[in-house]
Amino acid sequence: MVLIHKSETGWIPKLGLYLFPLLTIIFAALYLLDESFYRNIIKEDSIIEWLTFAFLIGAGIVSLIVASGIRKRHHYFHWFFILFFGFNLLAGFEEISWGQRVFEVETTGIFHEYSDQNEMNLHNTFQGFFGIKTKHIALLILLLYGSILPGLMRNKNPQYGKFPLRQFVIPPMFLRGGFTIGAILMLDFQTGHEEEIGEFFFSICFFIMMLWNLTLYKRGYFRPDNYFIISKRTPSLSE
Questions:
Q1: In whole angstroms, what is the distance from residue 14 CA to residue 34 CA?
Q2: 116-134 in b/e burial notation, b at 16+ Cβ within 10 A?
């Protein structure tokens, strides 16, 4: 399966292509060689959870940098990167329950009544209230967004689409493997806690995706249609 589009060049596509199979091998080896250690690093408040938080916050920051750069250079607000910044901050702080365990805050009120893990966060409260696992929703959405949609759009250049639609950013082809493996891990085989690794993989996907879009911005992408700029001449990407 070809995971790198011909236009995706540089070290970032190579990182996105090879990192996730390598990480999968490492986690599998840890499980086979020392299951106790493996379980310890993927449990709540473990290094994997905090790395997930760090990558989500990092992805949000890079997304804001791209949005700010587009605003300064091209004079419009790119709605996707602004919303993606907010999404990553929300997801990051939800991941660590807004620092509840760090500051030893007691779970009270609606969170105590409905949260299936007795934590002060929205996704566990949603699960307890509606009886629906948010990890299954995330699995389906991110499998569609990160694994299926890039394949469907691989022969279409969004730079030549209509301006409002062009603001919807699709993950690059080289991240399909990462999104797919992350979705599989959300099924929680072998120990019932593999969703933590799946979330970790997704957070890395988001971070690499934003690094790639920062690269595209520097190459001259995300320009508005001629209607939105004074000059009628369409500038080349090398300018």
A1: 30
A2: eeebbbbbbbbbbeeeebb
Find how far residue 130's CA is from the centre of its chain.
25
Amino acid at 92: G
Provide the angle, in degrees to the nearest 10, between the axes of the packed helices 195-219 and 176-185: 160
- The pTM score is 0.84
Question: Residue 59 has what DSSP assignment?
Answer: H
Single out the residue of 66, 72, 120 nearest to residue 88, CA to CA. 66
Output phi, psi for 227, to 5 deg.
-65, -30
Q: Is 6 exposed, middle or buried (0-12, 13-18, 19+ CB in 10 A)?
A: exposed
Q: How many CB atoms lie within 10 A of CB 113?
A: 12
Give the largest Cα separation in the chain, rounded: 64
Rounded CA gap, 24 and 21, in Å? 5
The secondary structure of residue 17, as a DSSP letter, is H
In tens, the pLDDT along 181-212 reads: 999 999 998 898 999 999 999 999 999 999 99
What DSSP string describes 106-135? PP-HHHHHH-TTS-S-HHHHHHHHH---HH
> Tens digit of pLDDT for each residue in 106-162?
765 666 565 556 666 666 666 655 567 788 889 999 999 999 999 888 766 554 455
End-to-end CA, the chain: 34
